[in-house]
Amino acid sequence: MARIMRPLDGVLLFDKPLGLSSNIALQKVRRLFQAEKAGHTGTLDPLATGLLPVCFGEATKFTSSLLEADKTYCALIRLGQTTTTGDAEGEITNTCAVEQGEAEVRSTLCKFIGEIQQIPPMHSAIKHQGKPLYEYIRKGETVIRASRSASIHELVLERFAGNVIEIKVRCSKGTYVRTLAEDIGSSLGCGAHLQGLRRTAIGRFDLGGAHNLAHMESVTMIEREAYILPLDSLLRDLPVLELDAAQVTRIAQGQRLVIDTAVLDGKVRLYGAGRFIGVADLVERRLTPVRLLSSVAKNAACVV
User: Fold this and answer.
1) Is 0.85 surpassed by the pTM of this model?
2) Residue 266, Cβ density class (10 Å: 0-12 exposed, 13-18 middle, ≥19 buried)
3) Which residues pair with residue 93 across a beta bridge?
4) Do the Cβ atoms of 235 and 41 come closer than 8 Å?
């Protein structure tokens, strides 16, 4: 018998396990909650673990803030070895004695703080002529890639163990930690590859509020649902604007409002009768809807 899926709205902070792709992990969580619609924000490779926010239902409309947010990782780097993939999954291509000490490693890490240039790895989902790069490498083909800018806000040596180092990285979206590991090894002169990766935070969300698959499978559906955050939790950095019933109806019909408010120009969270209804742009007291909940639009249509 086919499982009945149901409408569900909100955000789950999921701790992705080792060995699962982000999409397979997403489908497992979706089936666990029997949710009709779900999406994740920010892909993690199968060899990476950690924070993977899963958005259910209407929350999928408001994921841009997480996609654009800074990411924080704990990375394990093996010095003295390079691989075909830049991580532990590939074949070793070169081995070198590691003679660099902790002081030299710390000094090298400092060189990567700030804006850097990275060449995306072939084992990535970046598209070339409509196909992701990893499809080319599977056929033994290599594509010339242009370098891209990335920002490293924080790079801290957490542990030094000779040929293995553990670092904390806080970086902009689109940063390839695998490439960063290779570049650190190249700068040290001994080569390196990424041995392990765990994402610990995205923006203001961190693993402290995350739940793993094994635990969620062991509890009841009611207990499980208590882990879901309200969908407006994605937008807590935006200022709040409360509308009256007439204003809610008008903006749900796509109308722009002229509104007297002390809120500064920019994107705002909209509420009606204390309930979240969507996001709008505020420019010189003119309010324009950007994304609204489907239920709000349906109710407005009934009023017309």
Assistant:
1) yes
2) exposed
3) none
4) no
45 classed as catalytic: yes
Task: Estimate to the nearest angstrom the gap between the alpha carbon of 234 and the chain centroid.
Answer: 12
Cα–Cα distances (Å) from 108 to 29, 112, 288, in that order, read 40, 7, 48
Instruction: Tell me the pLDDT of the chain (304 aa) as tens digits.
Output: 457 888 999 999 999 999 999 999 999 999 999 999 999 988 888 889 999 999 999 999 999 888 899 999 999 999 999 998 899 988 999 999 999 999 999 999 999 999 999 987 766 656 655 666 556 656 666 667 778 899 999 999 999 998 999 999 999 998 999 999 999 999 999 999 999 999 999 999 999 999 999 999 999 999 999 999 999 999 999 999 999 999 999 999 999 999 988 888 999 999 999 999 999 999 999 999 999 999 886 665 444 4
Distance CA 193, CA 179 (A): 8
AA letter at 106: R
Question: Which residue among the candidates 45, 87, 183, 232 is catalytic per the annotation?
Answer: 45
Whether the CB-CB separation of 173 and 68 falls below 8 Å is answered with yes
Burial class (CB in 10 A: 0-12, 13-18, 19+), 78: buried
